[in-house]
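To: structure subgroup
Subject: Chain for Friday's discussion

All,

I'm putting the inputs and outputs inline so they're searchable in the archive.
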Amino acid sequence: MDHRQLVKDCMKGNRIAQRQLYNLFADSMLGVCYRYTKSMADAEDVLQEGFVKAFMHLDQYKFEGELGGWIRRIMVNTAINYLKKNSLYQSDLMFSENGLHPVSGDDPEMSLSAKEISELIRQLPPGYQAIFNLHGVEDPGNQ
């Protein structure tokens, strides 16, 4: 698919092109948003706010790098701002050394599936989830 033409059509206000762009990236971006929030409803709120920002600033996309990567950055920033603004997350964003538990060396061969790891990450307070996601998942140096 020609993302260049799709973006240009979206900037012209073409609703069909806007729907195509949304449909192209919504599922994967919802996953990004969900990694930062406590519920699917919050993730959907972040997704919608992120797409509004993406559409408002499409003129800033310079066709350098992947369009999906550009949208992902908007979603991550929107999710972090959502965490900062939403009172539900405020206490979870306070970090302390007391909440950290050292990894036991008893079973270094332990293997977990991606789903199990994802479920464990979701059990972290949102602030810790955000840090993990930013450095362990979103950091381009790790990919």
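Points worth raising on Friday:
DSSP finds seven helices and no strands in the chain.
The radius of gyration is 18 Å.

D.
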